[in-house]
Structure formats: structure tokens, C-alpha cells
Amino acid sequence: MDLYLPIANLSVNALVIIGLGGLVGFLSGMFGVGGGFLTTPMLIFYGIPPTVAAASAASQVTGASVSGMMAHMRRDGVDFRMGGVLVAGGIAGSLLGAWLFRLLTALGQIDTVIGLGYVLLLGTIGLLMARESFTAVRAVRGGKPVRVKRRRHHPLVAALPMRWRFYRSGLYISPIAPLLLGALTGVMTMLLGVGGGFILIPAMLYLLGMGTQVVVGTSLFQIVFVTMASTMTHSLTTHAVDLVLAVLLLLGSVVGAQFGARFAVKVKPEYLRLALSLIVLLVAARMAWGLGIRPDEIYSVQAP
């Protein structure tokens, strides 16, 4: 069942794209992550141009995150004041990311930057997750309690001026820190097509010191609006969003997430985190290999 993608300018098997979306959705439901950091590399492996893959993945992350955000809102698990600051920073970051995207496209380096960005990002995150997961698994097997990091904001965050009270998060800190954190995820969303939750959540816990009961919901709140803004910015500036591709991905991810969530309750969380870290490292290694191998055609001539 082949479908033509008008923006990617190629034909794909719709069932394969839905299957990729289902796989990412399954992993999202099982591990509690947005999945954007896996969607873009998998699309690139399949042959989708990196620019279209990154832009379309952001729109898929928007749809996949809405239901999770609504569920946390019903449980009063969203700090709207903190979320508003993160969204403001994220929108500013997406505008900066759009400028960088256009600049790198004009220089002909956007594909390389996307590839290198994923190798560095996924490699670093995967190694940190693997280290923590191995420690937790060893402690569980040895019958020792797993050490939990103490919740407190970073000294640099405490030194920033103009403090606000974030009552739901139990914080009295400067809004500058979450504003900069939101801006960073906005730039990443524009350039790489990720929601940023796998970086945002640890930063909210260990840099800002937020309470665990509102971290996931507030992160999803920010992801929904920033990926929405990034998708609109891509549509208006880079014209790289392929709606046909995004819809196919969303169809698969919605179904896959349900199965992933059911499977997750049957596995210990320490082993889930270890499995996710290994998957992330495998994707990073595959991206690095793709950047390093010699292409079939070193030079190409395109008619004006």
C-alpha cells in the first residue's frame, strides 16, 4: 500500500510508516517518554529526508502528548504557572531554532547537524541512563535499597534574581531558570523534532527541584504547546512538515501506546529503564554509523 508524501517527495509503504509509529508509541507507553527522539532517527533510517523527518516528528509528538496532558490535568498534576514560563521560553527557543534551521539549510549543513545532534544527544543520555539503571538493577539483585537523589534546586538556580512562588511545585525560585530550560527544549524541538521530555523531566527534578507529583504533567503541558508552535513555525518558514507522514505516524503511535502501557505494568521499572537506555544507545550507534560510512554516490548533479 504505497502512498506519495508530497513534502518528502517520495512514495512510502503506508503500513511500514504506521508500523514505525506503532513501535514508537509502544515504547512511549512502556517507558513514559514522548518518543520524538526515536521517531526522527527511524524515519531517517527508512529513507525520509532528515529535514522532513524532524519537522513531521514534532507534529506527531503534539498529538501523542495531548491525552497524557489531559489525564494529568484531571489529577491536578500540572503546575500551570511553571508550565506557562516553560512554554514562553519554548516558543522563544522555537523561533531561534527556526532561524538556525533556515541558516543551516542555506549552508547545506542541516542534514549533518541533525545527524550529529542525535549522536551526541542520544549517546550522552543513553550512557547516563545506562549507568543509573545498572546501579539500580545491581542494588535490587543484591537486596539493597535503591538510593534516591534528594530533591533540591541547583545552587546556580538559587542564585538567580527575581524569585517567584510556584505553589504546585513547592518552589520559590527565579523564573529565569525555567525560561532558559524551556528555550533549550524549543531549539531542540525545531532542529531535531524531539519533545524534549527525556531532558526536561530530569532537569525539572534535579536542577529546579520540582515535586515529582507535577513533573510529568507540567512537562507534557510544555511539550504540547511548544511542539505545536514548532510545527506551525516549520509550516510557515521551512515548509518541511508532511501532514500525510504525520497522520500515518499518529495512527500507529496512538494504538502502540495502549499496548506499551499495558506491558509496562508487568516489568520492573529498573529493567524498563535499562532496556530504554540500551535502545537509545543502539539508535545513537546506528546514526553514527550512517554518518561515517561512504555514500553510494559521493557527488550528485542537480539540474536548476
Automatic annotation (TrEMBL):
Alphabetic keyword roster: Cell membrane, Membrane, Transmembrane, Transmembrane helix
Keyword Membrane: yes
Residues annotated as transmembrane: 12-37, 43-66, 78-101, 113-130, 171-199, 205-228, 240-259, 271-289
Subcellular location: Cell membrane; Membrane
One Gene Ontology cellular component annotation held by this UniProt entry: plasma membrane
Protein known as: Probable membrane transporter protein
Keyword Membrane: yes
Highest taxon listed in the record's lineage: Bacteria
Main location: membrane
Topology within the bilayer: Multi-pass membrane protein
The family this protein is said to belong to: Belongs to the 4-toluene sulfonate uptake permease (TSUP) (TC 2.A.102) family.
